[in-house]
Write a structure and sequence with these properties.
This protein has about 150 residues and is mainly β. The chain is about 0% helix and about 45% strand. The strands form four sheets. A six-stranded antiparallel beta sheet has the order 2-4-11-8-7-6, with no helix packed on it.
């Protein structure tokens, strides 16, 4: 008799460290608010499964927010990233940044553009493609900037 084990996926930066909050100048910061999905378990995960809900906030005048991550990203898809397990580097997790109103930043090296003059905008970190995820700790740092 075989018993399948299901372990928790710990998303370190998803528990949550915004590695950098970039801004127009040192005195003007964009704030990131991140909330990880509770109860994530290893196993088969479907494309588009939300693992983090985020908001970027700035009360400064702007036309858009630029959001990006610190992980290795795809050369062909600016919002897609590859995460490596901290316990075993063979463990991989593919994720992407998404928003209802955003678009990929294919001009300045990757990430997501959230065009808005509003003080805040929402985004998601989601599973990129159906995949079998091995239990491990995966780290992803976020950064944001305002666009004048």
């Amino acid at each position: 008799m075989s018993i399948a084990k299901r372990g928790r996926i710990t998303l370190l930066a998803l528990l949550l460290t915004a590695f950098s909050m970039q801004a127009v100048s040192a005195a003007e910061t964009a704030q990131l608010v991140l909330r990880s999905q509770q109860g994530m378990v290893s196993g088969y995960l479907h494309d588009g499964t939300r693992i983090v809900l985020g908001r970027v906030i700035s009360h400064l005048s702007h036309t858009a927010f630029h959001l990006w991550g610190d992980a290795q990203h795809s050369d062909t898809r600016p919002t897609a990233y590859f995460l490596t397990g901290s316990q075993d580097s063979r463990h991989q997790l593919r994720v992407r940044l998404e928003s209802d109103n955003g678009y990929a930043d294919d001009k300045s090296g990757g990430g997501l553009i959230l065009p808005t003059i509003n003080d805040e905008a929402s985004f998601y970190l989601v599973i990129d493609g159906d995949q079998n995820v091995i239990a491990d700790s995966y780290s992803f740092g976020f950064a944001a900037a305002t666009t004048p």
